[in-house]
Design a protein that fits this description.
Length: 275
């Protein structure tokens, strides 16, 4: 497991491009027949990916100091690749592309599998500390709550699908969902906002090989950017904006943990205040 430490916003102002990538960019999440995990000390979120050619088990590591991975954690999973399945304590859940799964604290055995070993699933996962148990539950995208936002003249027509949230599949801390931009639309989360009560992780996918997203971050009056390519994630601290524009339309998965689970609890940044 890779460890990322927290960063103070005053220090971030002086980071080079390479330092920003080192601290916040998460790459190479889907290594064949491996589970890649990145632990950030921002609210102790774990970002991960599993790409099983054959069944692979999620194991606890020294970094989390427990006997099994979800002993004191919960987890959200979304399959961004071909069909696969996740077994939770012996019960198998089949996930097609864009389907999700919530696994609650206390689940002892998590096994990832692909329906076709030569065309493996890509399971993207987020895990946060948890102190209350909620049941494991599958989330088909057809049953996720959609919110339609944006306008053509602002190039941000998009649909937000809520997967794990208080009015849907419940969790202790984790909120998670997916935003799909319509063709010819490129902007996400603009006007931008912060929510000092929560950190967030964005994972971008469905990008063509020659396309990129310019992900914006930093305090509103000291913004920076990271160039994101397909199936890469970026850690967004509680003090940072999180927005982006692509050279093509794309899909991204968002996940948050912090003081509350109120989706609309955000501090909007006026466009005139951005620097």
């Amino acid at each position: 497991m890779e460890i990322r430490n927290t960063v103070h916003p005053d220090d971030f102002k002086f980071y080079t491009t390479e330092r920003i990538k080192k601290e916040f960019l998460v790459q190479n999440l889907f290594v064949p027949n491996e589970i890649k995990l990145v632990y950030t000390h921002f609210d102790r979120m774990i970002v991960g990916g599993a790409c099983p050619n054959e069944p692979i088990r999620l194991e606890a590591t020294k970094e989390i100091g427990t006997d099994f991975f979800l002993e004191r954690r919960e987890m959200g999973i979304i399959n961004v690749g071909p069909k696969g399945s996740v077994s939770v304590d012996g019960k198998e859940y089949t996930l097609d592309t864009k389907d999700g799964l919530y696994a609650g604290v206390g689940a002892r055995e998590i096994i990832f599998s692909s329906s076709d070993a030569n065309n493996p699933a890509h399971f993207y996962l987020l895990s946060s500390p948890a102190h209350q148990k909620y049941p494991t539950e599958i989330i088909e995208i057809s049953n996720a709550e959609p919110i339609h936002l944006g306008a053509e003249n602002e190039s941000n027509v998009r649909t937000i699908y809520k997967y794990i949230h208080p009015a849907g599949v419940k969790s202790c801390q984790l909120c998670m969902g997916m935003t799909i931009l319509e063709p010819n639309n490129i902007w996400n989360t603009m006007p931008s906002h912060t929510h000092p009560r929560r950190m967030e992780v964005y994972f971008y996918f469905n990008l063509p090989a020659d396309a990129v997203v310019f992900h914006l971050m930093g305090e509103p009056d000291e913004t920076r950017h990271i160039v994101i390519r397909n199936e890469e994630a970026v850690i967004s601290p509680d003090w940072s904006i999180h927005a982006g524009a692509g050279s093509s339309n794309y899909i991204f998965i968002w996940g948050m943990i912090g003081e509350n689970q109120t989706f609309t609890d955000m501090d909007t940044v006026d466009m005139a205040a951005l620097q």
